[in-house]
Amino acid sequence: MPPEDTSGPSRRRRPAEDRRRDLRRRRRNALLILAAGVAAIAGFVVWAGRGDDTGAATDEVASAPVLRVAARAPKPVLPAPKTAELAVTATGGDGVEMRVVATPAGAAAVSGPWRPAAKALPIPADVRPLLEAGPIPGYVEVRDDSGGTARSTSMLLPPTPGDGTAEIVRSVSTSRPYVALVFDDGLDQAAVGRIIDILRKQKAGGTFCFNGVNVKLWTPALARKVQAAVADGVITMCSHGWGHRTGTTSSEPEATTDLANNATTDRMIGVSSVPFYRPPYGAISPGIEKAAGKLGYRWIVMWDVDPSDYEKPSVATLTRRVVDESRKGSIVVLHAIPNTADALPGMLSGLRKKKLRAVTLTTMFGELSSAAGRGSASTATAPAATAGDAPPVPGAGD
Fold it and tell me: What is the pTM of this model?
């Protein structure tokens, strides 16, 4: 074996300077790793802390009570209650108060006083006068201690009944260019729907005085259509009794039964017929007057224009009769039948040419002050008459 060569440096041995340089590099890397770890831990702690804060805020918002309110008008009943109450459900908030706000069409809203939250909210005294001529839209508003507010969806506020005496009205004394087209019976469903469509399209109003014996045969779709028309102010409802079963000899109990039976019509449509009642044939007795007044009807609605549409005259003849005979404050007796629906566009056009406007009874009576006279209003008992109303259909008295 040849001798080991020791003249040069060892193959495994590095100079001292290299070892020191390597040591410094290792220390520096270790410090960098340690710093990165510390930074990562610190960042995580900060992030976690902020996450907790955000979560706490989110939980706080989520758990904060949201002020809400729902309200509904009472179902129509007879006798109509002197002071109607709205059913109210308010949730969220502290120190909640509520009030009724009436929103009559074409006029400023009228607000009742704030009251402590309750399940039943009576119609306030300052709103009731607006409801003497029938239901009008309104809502319930709530507020809480934090200043939060909410309101219910719009509804028809229930009408204010009369004081026990029904007034017979044949026309209205007014300077306004109003004419009331009042459609009776409601037997022909297609005609009822067409009348609504025409009135809505021409931005006019009308009044339906329908018998329960006819309304009970309606489809749910027609009932909803009438509901919507009433809610929109296109139609006002009035009672025509259950059937053509009352007359000049009707007693108070007989008339009360007939009107009370027709309250099922009000409930089906969801709108009270108070304060308007039109007796079949325009035939009135002392018993009918007393019954109507005690049940809450404020006005017994007769007419001063009778075009005898139930005799089915031509469209041109029917239109001419209505337009020629109408004046400011006129009440026109009509029926929801096909030929009347055919003539309605011409009636409305002709009335406009005379500077007259077809409106609901609610509009006509609602814009009169209680001190204003009501023209040919009378408490005299009217004689029996078949003119102005169609003969009853078979079974209408059932």
Answer: 0.78
